[in-house]
């Protein structure tokens, strides 16, 4: 795959005057812990103060290791978690103000969701045709011929061809890549404006990953989709996304255009992620990658100050370990939550 041509020049403004499709402001999603029914034991601060904008036709990668809050963020964008503070807005309207009917419209027609585990996402007792007809039935398409025509059309789009060879197969009869193509077909059936892809290639063989990413890229360009691409693999994000948010322990530590981040990563955690990327040069295969010592902090009792400071090689004692850094502007459309960049 060739790296994407960058299409967005700034994190918060667009020269063409477009308004964001999705706006997230100071989003906090905490989960309460209880020892007993009436005894509160604290909170898991899964997402803690994240803001972002997603514009029409843009691909935004959200990168972070396990436990960084990526999955909680997307479930909140789907309206499955209610934030304790902050907001998620779609086309300028807060999801919390949606009526049940509006929420069904949002989830069923405006957002497509590509799950990480294709086999777990597909009911084993339904054929491919049944799996793809179900969203159309929910969407109110009662004409059987019309549904079948749409199913055939979308199967052609995701390269499940010849269509007749796949229509009546069940998930266990398909390879992992074919299962993921069914999941992708189901996600675009209703022609959504937003596609959320939750680590869509992490459970596939390496030989299939590029094919699936190329398919997602082609569909995004054909239908001018906005895409949120969730991954722990920075390598795939570099080829797929226009812009990137790096998450660590529930926080967004850096946001930038992908091209700028690759050239001028600012936050020490992002630098560590880039350093750990595999080197294609066989002469460097013997080199041991340096990674920060330790593990991510507990989200129940996160450390004071910057959450990365216990592992940071560039810690400023007395500051990083005491005060939480705000977002500092590192360059055009590039922000990092790190005291190294204070004015």
Can you describe this structure?
With 343 residues, the protein is an alpha/beta fold. It has a domain at 249-278 and 296-343. Helix content is 31%, strand content 23%. The protein is built from eleven helices and twelve strands. The strands form two sheets. The protein has an eight-stranded mixed sheet with strand order 6-7-8-3-9-10-12-11, sandwiched between helices. Helix 5 packs across helix 7 (176-188). The model is unreliable at 1-13 (pLDDT under 50).
Quick take:
This protein has 343 residues and is of the alpha/beta class. It has eleven helices and twelve strands.
Low-pLDDT sequence parts: 1-13
Helix tally equals: 11
Alpha-carbon Rg, integer = 21 Å
Helix content bin: 25-40%
Query: For the terminal residues, how far apart are their CA atoms?
Result: 39 Å
The counted number of beta strands is 12
* Class of secondary structure makeup: alpha/beta
Strand order of the largest sheet: 6-7-8-3-9-10-12-11
Strand content: 15-25%
Major beta sheet, specifics?
8 strands, mixed
Q: Averaging pLDDT over every residue, what do you get?
A: 89
Shape: globular
Write the element-wise H/E pattern from the N-terminal end onward.
EEEHEEHEHHHHHEHEHEEHHEE
